[in-house]
Amino acid sequence: MQLKVVHMEEGKDPIAASRVGGQTRVLPQRLLHLLVLFLVLCFSFSIVSIYMIRYFGVNSVVTSWKPIVVPCNHEQATTLDQWIEPPSNLMHKMSDEELLWRATFVPRVNKYPFERVPKIAFMFLTKGPLPLAPIWERFFKGNDGLYSIYIHSLPTFEADFPPGSVFYKRQIPSQVSEWGRMSMCDAERRLLANALLDISNERFVLLSESCIPLYNFTTIYNYVIGSKYSFMGVFDDPGPYGRGRYNGNMLPEVNISDWRKGSQWFEVNRKLAIYIVEDTKFYPKFSEFCRPACYVDEHYFPTMLTIQASSLLANRSLTWVDWSRGGAHPATFGGSDITEEFLKRLYEGHSCLYNGQPSSICHVFARKFSPSALQALFLLAPKFLGF
Ligand SMILES: *[C@@H]1O[C@H](CO)[C@@H](O)[C@H](O)[C@H]1NC(C)=O
Ligand SMILES: *[C@@H]1O[C@H](CO)[C@@H](O)[C@H](O)[C@H]1NC(C)=O
Ligand SMILES: *[C@@H]1O[C@H](CO)[C@@H](O)[C@H](O)[C@H]1NC(C)=O
After folding, report:
1. Can you give the pTM of this predicted structure?
2. Membrane-spanning residues where (predicted)?
3. Which atom of ligand 1 is nearest to the CA of 215?
4. Which residues contact 303 (CB under 8 A, 6 or more apart)?
5. What is the mean pLDDT of residues 144-149?
6. pLDDT band per the 50, 70, 90 thresholds, residue 19
7. Rounded to the nearest whole angstrom, what is the distance from the C-alpha of residue 236 to the centroid of ligand 3?
8. In what helix (H) or strand (E) does residue 100 lie, and over which residues does it extend?
9. DSSP-assigned beta bridge partners for residue 152
10. What secondary structure letter does DSSP report for 325?
11. Does 3 score more than 70 pLDDT?
């Protein structure tokens, strides 16, 4: 007893120390047990896992995760619909790089395993509003399933088409584009790429806010869909505004003998649309060596497609425009210009080749019309435009 007490009293600190020491000695032992137990568990788990993987394959381990991730995609993943149905929301969040890449997916089997009704993609390249929208609304009416609409406007512009409009929610993610600059071609490629996401779009028409259709939908649809060639106005202009804009640094990709000029307002089929969207060969050359006074939107696609697919080009534009007044811009027509006599000029006295045969219908769209022309056009539409 005494010894114990003395021992305890004498060495308060040592006892305390030994207690603490005792605890520290006891704890590692418990920890050690726990650690060993843990290691054994880990080891057995590893063994079990390895056997599981050996006997059931890695998949069984992955499969156990699937139900957590898959359900919301389940419906899409099991049918062809996700590849046939056009995107429900045009305002996607893809960057241009992602979009162009996605748009160049091409089926390698020619026959479609579903009933595909070819559509015309009407691509409106605009600054903001569409003042001639009422004419287009009337034009498209009753032709659902044969067309789709895409609008590229200034990114700051907020469209307010009502839900019943054919233009409702047809805006695509847009960026600022300047006339005569590569940003204009970028906008056109963006329109094409978005339109390519709909597998049923077969022909792609570029239009501006000052364009009007010259015939009813059926006539234009048949004319465009039935054409063996794409309507890109392409010509070799030997003068200063044609070959004069060529830059020898574009060799070897672009030889001056390939250099073409053309109207910006094109129509291309799906194959050519993909050529344009996938291009990485000519783009850098035009981007670097065709800057004002070389207006790249007049040369890039006409030259590129002449090199890649000249036999598919009609070399003429579908869009009538009046350059007769001279100057850098074509004539714009307002309300007072829209007379019966003027409209006759649009329809009469034309001749061209359509699928190799002479035709009197050479243009099915026309520009440029100012907002003030709307009322007069609307009144004359049933008689002249045929709708
Ligand atoms: C479209 O125009 C053509 C030629 O003018 C005419 O024959 C046809 O009936 C019109 N179609 C419709 C749906 O209005
Ligand atoms: C450009 O094309 C012409 C005619 O096709 C050819 O004679 C000429 O050698 C080419 N120039 C270059 C630099 O390849
Ligand atoms: C268009 O012009 C190219 C030459 O640039 C030519 O090969 C092609 O046959 C022309 N297309 C038509 C339909 O005449």
Report:
1. 0.81
2. 31-53
3. 2
4. 254, 258, 259, 260, 282, 286
5. 97
6. very low
7. 11
8. helix 96-103
9. 125
10. T
11. no
